[in-house]
Amino acid sequence: MKKRLKPQIIYMLIFMFLPLKTAAAEVYRMTVRAYDNCKVCTGKTPKHKAYGITKSGKVASHGTVAVDPKMIPLGTKLKIEGYENRIFRAEDIGKAVKGRRIEIWMESHNKALRFGKKKLRVFVMK
């Protein structure tokens, strides 16, 4: 009896090579965490003039990622394992974001906490 691949495995195999077909990409295994605009995550209150504003000057929204600009330049497009249908953009930096660490922006602190800390493949589009 032939063994069949599970749909999840096939989907992951397709995703692994999809970014390489659409554009040249570097793949890194990175620690991925989440953050939001709250004072706990950013140190800024809603009264602060830069509240919700990223290092690149844009308003943080879905698809915003904080990176180490020495490793991934601001403005770079990213794909993240588990979020195959979304293209992220490196628009922010953070004190704890160094080397192979990135942080995905979420709309609430509870969602950021639930996301936790994960090791995922990150495709850095060239």
From TrEMBL:
This is 3D domain-containing protein. The keyword ATP-binding does not apply. The keyword Zinc does not apply. Keywords: Signal. Pfam families: 3D. Residues 64-125 form the 3D domain. It comes from the Bacteria. CDD domains: 3D_containing_proteins.
